[in-house]
Amino acid sequence: MSDEHEIIRQVYAAKEDAQAADRLIDAYMPFIRAETAKFLKRPPVEGSDDELSIAMFAFYEAIHGYFRIRGAFLKYASLLIRSRLIDYYRKERKHLRVVSLDTPADGDDAPLGDLLADGRDHGEEMAHREATRREIEELTRQMEAFGVGLPDVADNCPRQERTLNACRKALQYAKEHPELLEELLRTKRMPIGRLAEGGGVERKTLERHRKYMVALLLIYTNGYEIIRGHIQQTMKGGTAQCAI
């Protein structure tokens, strides 16, 4: 716990001091390389693999985007690094297709053309699925402390547009007042009264969808980049649908 407190102290110092940020990045280069290696499935080569530079920038971004309510810093940084590497992979995938389709795939005698015949990017899909799986596993563990499981969330999510809008308003208020998210993590209880009043929604609506709101609020406390992206996309829709 003392080590985590020291990391958080260094991160907050690095937010205000560029040299402190550089020192923190230098100190955690082994961590950054390890996270890049997980994505590449091999050690990155400095000066050759752009992914290492992407991971370093993501770590820097994590420093400036981190707050205590997000949980452990290194876990947050890990999620952000993986997310940025996936984004980079998506942008660069068109360049991968200029490779000869007759070239054998790594570890396989079948040519790349056979693997890409269905028009899908299997490498990206695998990386995205793995990142999503890890986020869901972490969220599931965190929800257990609140007595909430994924089936509970599915059963408890809003089915009507009016109710979904109420949950949106409560979530937006919580995002604008991070002390409410800190209270949620500290007490393991949702501050329904303050969310209802601040969001301008009926308390009974939030009480009826408490398990859904617990999951939604937790997702905004600890770097669940992929899950948050799914929620944001879903909530842009004009029809009522569950955002998790």
Shape verdict: globular
Share in β-strands: under 5%
Helix count equals: 14
Order of helices and strands: HHHHHHHHHHHHHH
Describe the structure.
Belongs to the sigma-70 factor family. SigI subfamily. Keywords: Cytoplasm, DNA-binding, Sigma factor, Stress response, Transcription, Transcription regulation. By secondary structure, this protein is mostly helical. It is built from 14 helices and no strands. The longest helix has 24 residues. About 9% of the residues have low confidence.
Show the helix and strand layout.
Elements: H1 2-16, H2 18-27, H3 29-40, H4 50-65, H5 73-96, H6 112-115, H7 122-144, H8 150-156, H9 161-176, H10 178-187, H11 192-199, H12 203-208, H13 210-219, H14 225-235
Highlighted features:
70% helix; mainly alpha; single chain; 244 residues; globular; 14 helices
A few lines on this structure:
This is RNA polymerase sigma factor SigI. Helices cover about 70% and strands about 0% of the residues.
